[in-house]
Predict the 3D structure of the following.
Amino acid sequence: MPKVTFVAHDGSKTSVDEPDGVSVMQAAQNAGIGGIVAECGGSMMCATCHVYVAEPWLSKLPAMTATESEMLTMTVSERRGTSRLSCQIVLGAALDGITVELPEKQI
Amino acid sequence: MAQDAAPPRGAPASDIDPFSPQHILNPYAWHHEMRELGALVWLTKYRCFFAPRYAEAFQIIADYQSFSSAAGVGHTNFNKEKPWRQPSMLLEADPPDHTPRRAIVGRILSAPNLRVFRSGFEVEANRLIDRLLQQRDVDAVPEVAQAYVLKVFPDAVGIADGDRMNLLKYGTMVFNAFGPQNDIFDESVRDLGEVGPWIMERCQHRNLEPGKLGDQVYQAVSGGQITAEEAPILVRSFLSAGVDTTIDAVGNALWSFATNPAEWAKVKANQGIVKQAFEEVLRYESPFQTFFRTTTKDVELAGVKIPGNEKVMLNIGSANRDPRKWERPDVFDVSRDVRGHVGLGYGIHACIGQMISRLENEVLLTELARRKVDFEVTGPTEYKVHNTLRGFTKLPMRFKQG
């Protein structure tokens, strides 16, 4: 099962294993990671599952859709070049070991 | 006529009419019957497949490439029959046409863009609650659900006050059109009268309050993201899709809590669970029940080969009560893990107004809970006879200070 590591804004790390097909947002919710809110449950309607994804993982992610990009204009914490919505990152073998950094605030 | 009934093609067949008044009014028994019959059922009356269980329904909604919306999300297949109405620009379009529209409207209706409305919704919710505590005995359909939603939502879109009951006639017709062209649909068209031109006039830029949601759609025209012709149609879709559905959700929420007072007690004790509790309402009594997709090619689903260009019917209410997915599905339980319910759909066609509908409901329920208001059903209730929506036409209730 792919492993995903969440780095909270205070630097603390949590790692979880989830089956293929689970999104990083769902993994965070299953693990009770407080820094992911996900008000809309994965519909790209709330911009509250915002994460920063550093290399080498960023370039392994599928291209962003227009909707995801629009939604990232609405985040509470600053949008960076590494910003993604974690509901749109689906775990699989290629992303085993991915690390995502959580922004200071989601709401 | 027997020769008209297509072969079941590997799926069990049923001659049930899901759109008959008796089945509309009592959906859960025949949902159960269909789920037990098979993962995919051939409906002989409508000559289409029906996926009554959660797993297949979810698969169909998620796989928009195999299951298209562009041939209409109603029973009529626009690939086979000329559309008798203009297809919806958002709901009845596939990528790539759908993509830029969804992106821009999705941003306008996103949670961060809506936060500015919360305090206004709270004021209206509290005015309403003051009134309810004085009146005590009310019909909660007109006096709570319609009164609240017809105030806050059109205000947020930025249309002028007055004649807002017209919005109900329009929404009723639009959602009935997602079923077959039966008597129920015909009656809603007859009731429509001159509402079509009236609503279109309300959606013109000059009639929309600056800065509100409707005006923001027109601002996207200046940004080049949508065309000037698309703007009024998109604003109209806010008004057609966002009123009846949310009113039904408010009514269904009040009824669910009134008939499960222990669950309301949990919400009163901890308003932090209001959001989750409202999601359980959407699962338990889903306001938008039925719609269709059309296969883009031969697709195998649940071991059945569905040919291309065939209609497949879904029922959200049935998926949301499938015991293969949910423990004790017929129990209203605000403590359950309700994630994954499809009350608002899923994926690229998930309800685009979901965040404002949630906000309206969440604010009203939060204020009722914060003020420790209790409510009970005081007389016979009536459900609407509608092709796709589930909600009350009559809901006698008493509100009192708890």
